[in-house]
Design a protein that fits this description.
Chain A: It comes from Aminobacter aganoensis. Chain A: One of its GO terms (molecular function) is glutathione transferase activity. The complex is a heterodimer of chains A (215) and B (588). Chain A has 215 residues and is of the alpha+beta class. Helices cover 50% and strands 8% of the residues of chain A. Chain A has two domains: 77 residues, Glutaredoxin (3-Layer(aba) Sandwich), CATH 3.40.30; 106 residues, Glutathione S-transferase Yfyf (Class Pi), Chain A, domain 2. Chain A contains seven helices and four strands. With 588 residues, chain B is an alpha+beta fold. Classes of the chains: A alpha+beta (215), B alpha+beta (588). Bound molecules: glutathione. The site of glutathione has 13 residues of chain A, from helix 1, helix 3 and helix 4.
Chain lengths: 215, 588
């Protein structure tokens, strides 16, 4: 069984809980006392991940760090239908990779602002917020034109991919870092769509959506 | 400039911002709005705060009929914004005063227009024809509206179909502080672009552009990209300019506060049986054998919020006043739909409605009152309707169905043709269980089946003819249902009222003592003394004129209170009940 080194309030760990929930795979959790315990910087944890970061998983003897890398692994291995990370579609894989990197950019900005506000980290919060707004502007425009072309998701597919999962948590939690989403209406609509994916789960600070209108 | 801005119409969203089941987060002049489209198409523009704790409603859930606040689940109705349910008080009907502030909403040119204190109409633009235009992507700008509007006068673009060119002539056709109309001409091609600048706050705006002419397919996308790119550049320049200026203080809209008392207390009482609302019979039809359906639409304005279980008084042309339950599902707030059964022994009420009242007639009705509130925290809810008793239960069943809550609606009638409102019951799927053509004995047996195996967290709602209600209450008691889980509503009180007693009533809060002689009611005597007291059926069935007893022994003659409530001696229906003691003290 998959073991997730987890912290409930971490958006990066939430990415994995989300995908595993949607894929319907089971996992066990090793809770890490991230705050205030700083257990991710403890000697035993640094042996698992020398970067001292969450999340990390262990599966069949494989130890993996980095939320995006783990999403790639989980989707490749456990998605029977093969839509979350379609291995036979190079163009789509390229797009997914591009937006996974973008998601890490959201972690570096929106999540940093949140760590500053919620967990009192010492960051240049203004720079982090400005960076988040810059990324959100880009994504909002991308999603708005997607809607105009009949596309609901971040990548050019008729179904969500792990790029949607990677971007979702820190967008949804951005207000906790003082980054409102009012100016990004297409992002807000996309958030509703992500919340309506079968198997969607919440975390603290993320609310569920109501049902969509029956066709 | 911004002081007069309050009275003008501004766009606050675009049509594409309001897909079904979404709540858009808008802002105008510092005031935030939750904007949502109900499944019936109605666009709601509300103050963006839940009355409960001020939580933003824009993070709430649009279920197509109501908006539910995320924190404590308060529900607000489409159109009226009145509260229909408070989970923390599952047994109580929320006071009608609990209503969010609503703002005007007009949909035009692919935009949603609103205003804080609108004067006049939404601007009509000569060159723009509804349905023959293209609404551009809204561009939020961190700069004051006047900075943005000034920049827009110098906006240069290509007409539709020529977006790959670069030498169109652009002229300003009109402009004011919040809008600029430009025309680009390149050879034969000519496009009118009107840009509205939505003043979001002192230092924030949204550019909302509309082009004349319909374009489709690839050209449409090219045009949208063309303007998006150019407007993004304009945005960057305007933001740069704004950054060089001192940041203006954010606008502080005045938020009307609903006082906690108003938000928690029952509505203020009103004198007598008032019929303050005028409605038109928009539709009259046969809802079933012997049952006429009436759709009542307001002559002007909106109808007040109703909750499932609520009834209205209908004042008939012949002077009679009758009570009818509202059958509407949640959010169906543009009219009230009632069902009227032609009574064989009609004293003129149902006959008048069946025979005299026609489509197009105007009737006076009271505001809705809810003395039959529905809990929504039960694990299981059983509704038992007999005949026309379906009406309040139909509203309740639709409310639970909308929230995907577990219920069964048992509907007893003589035959299929007597099942009313088939178009509404059809939406309840297998939760609707008709029981047709049963004798009284068979009905009793069926009720014993339905009500057997009481489990805690179940609630039962009964409405139907008196004998059937008596039987059902009896069966429920035998099957172990506690009185607190059995809710009922009688159509009428068939008890023979004994009004031979005479006694004294002291009204503790009003500091008056009144004598109630034989032949007169407490309600009458109080009214004569100028005491406000609402009432409706005035025969001890509906629960409207309920008062709290502080001292003395009531002589109950109503059918509204349940046995436990009667025994407790703390409540009285002032329209029919009297006193066994020489004196009653009421909390009025
Ligand atoms: N690129 C990594 C970033 C992970 C990350 O920033 N994790 C946070 C918790 S959500 C963390 O462990 N921060 C502690 C640190 O970087 O020192 C990923 O996507 O997994």
């Amino acid at each position: 069984m998959i073991t997730l080194y987890d912290y409930e309030l971490s958006g990066n760990c939430y990415k994995l809980r989300l995908l595993m929930g949607m894929l319907g795979v089971d996992w066990t959790t090793v809770p890490i006392d991230f705050y205030p315990g700083r257990e991710h910087k403890s000697e035993w944890f640094l042996k698992i991940n020398p970067l001292g970061q969450l999340p990390v998983i262990e599966d069949d003897g494989l130890v993996l760090r980095d939320a995006q890398a783990i999403l790639v692994y989980l989707a490749s291995k456990y998605d029977a239908v093969g839509t979350w990370y379609p291995r036979d579609n190079p163009a789509l894989l390229g797009e997914i990779g591009q937006w996974l990197a973008f998601a890490d950019g959201i972690t570096g900005t929106a999540s940093a602002a949140r760590l500053h506000d919620a967990l009192f980290y010492d960051f240049d919060v203004e720079a982090a917020r400005a960076g988040a707004h810059r990324l959100f502007r880009i994504l909002d425009e991308h999603l708005w034109f997607g809607e105009q072309e009949g596309r609901d998701w971040i990548c050019s597919a008729s179904h969500p991919t792990i790029a949607d999962i990677a971007c979702f948590p820190y967008i949804m939690l951005s207000e906790e870092g003082g980054v409102p989403r009012q100016d990004y209406p297409a992002i807000r609509r996309w958030c509703d769509r992500v919340k309506r994916i079968k198997g969607f789960t919440v975390m603290s600070g993320v609310f569920p959506a109501g049902p969509a209108k029956a066709a | 400039m911004l002081d007069t801005a309050k009275t003008r119409w501004h766009p606050v969203a675009a049509t594409y911002d309001l897909p079904f089941r979404h709540v858009f987060h808008a802002q105008l002049l510092g005031r935030e709005f939750a904007v949502w489209r109900a499944d019936d198409g109605y666009v709601n523009v509300w103050e963006n705060r839940c009355l409960h704790r001020g939580v933003r409603l824009s993070i709430g859930i649009n279920d197509g009929r109501e908006l539910k606040c995320q924190y404590h689940g308060w529900r607000y109705s489409n159109r009226t914004a009145g509260c229909t349910y408070i989970p923390a008080h599952p047994a109580d009907a929320p006071a009608r005063t609990i209503t969010n502030r609503t703002f005007a909403a007009v949909e035009r040119y692919g935009l949603i227009w609103s205003a804080e204190e609108p004067q006049g109409e939404v601007p009509e633009l000569p060159g723009l024809a509804e349905g023959e235009l293209l609404t551009l992507r809204g561009i939020p700008v961190n700069a004051p509206a006047d900075v943005v509007a000034a920049r827009l006068e110098g906006y240069r673009f290509q007409p539709n179909g020529r977006t790959d060119g670069s030498d169109a002539k652009v002229s300003v056709e009109a402009s004011n502080e919040f809008s600029v109309a430009l025309r680009a001409v390149d050879g034969e091609a000519s496009t009118l672009a009107v840009f509205f600048v939505q003043p979001v706050d002192s230092n924030r705006s949204v550019i909302r552009g509309v082009l004349d002419g319909k374009v489709e397919g690839a050209v449409r996308l090219a045009v949208l990209h063309h303007h998006n790119d150019l407007l993004s550049k304009l945005r960057d320049i305007a933001e740069h300019e704004a950054q060089a200026q001192p940041v203006p203080a954010p606008l502080e809209p005045v938020i009307d506060r609903v006082s906690p008392e108003l938000a928690e207390m029952p509505e203020e009482t009103k004198h007598g049986r008032k019929a303050t609302i005028r409605v038109e019979v928009a539709r009259k039809w046969q809802a079933a054998d012997g049952i006429a359906g009436f759709e009542l639409r307001p002559i002007k304005g909106l109808l007040p919020t109703f909750q499932p279980g609520a009834h209205i008084d209908v004042h008939l042309p012949n002077g009679l006043i009758r009570q009818y339950s509202i059958t509407n599902g949640p959010g169906e707030s543009d009219s009230y739909i009632i069902g009227v059964k032609l009574e064989r022994d009609s004293k003129g009420g149902s006959t008048c409605l069946h025979e005299t009242v026609r489509q197009g007639d105007v009737l006076a009705i009271s505001e809705p009152r809810n003395n039959f509130p529905l809990r929504r925290d039960a694990m299981k809810t059983i509704f038992v309707a007999g005949g026309i008793g379906i009406t309040p239960l139909l509203a309740m069943a639709q409310a639970l169905s909308n929230q995907s809550l577990n219920f069964e609606l048992h509907y007893f009638a003589q035959n299929e043709a007597q099942l009313a409102f088939p178009e509404k019951t059809a939406c309840l799927g297998t939760s609707l269980k008709p029981h047709l053509g049963l004798s009284p004995e068979q009905t009793g047996a069926r009720l014993r089946e339905i009500l057997s195996g009481y489990r805690s967290d179940a609630h039962l709602y009964l409405c139907g003819p008196g004998p059937m209600l008596e039987a059902a209450r009896h069966v429920a008691a035998e099957a172990g249902w506690p009185e607190t889980a059995v809710h009922f509503e009688y159509f009428k009180n068939t008890n023979v009222i004994d009004d031979s007693s005479s006694f004294e009533v002291a009204l503790a809060r009003s500091c008056v003592t009144l004598k109630v002689p034989a032949g007169r009611t407490i309600l009458d005597v109080m009214r004569e003394a100028g005491i406000d007291m609402p009432s409706s059926c005035e025969q001890g069935a509906c629960g409207t004129c309920l008062a709290t007893v502080i001292e003395g022994e009531p002589d109950h003659q109503d059918v509204y209170l349940n046995d436990a409530e009667r025994k407790s001696g703390t409540k009285i229906m002032t329209c029919v009940s009297r006193a066994k003691s020489a004196r009653l003290v009421l909390d009025l």
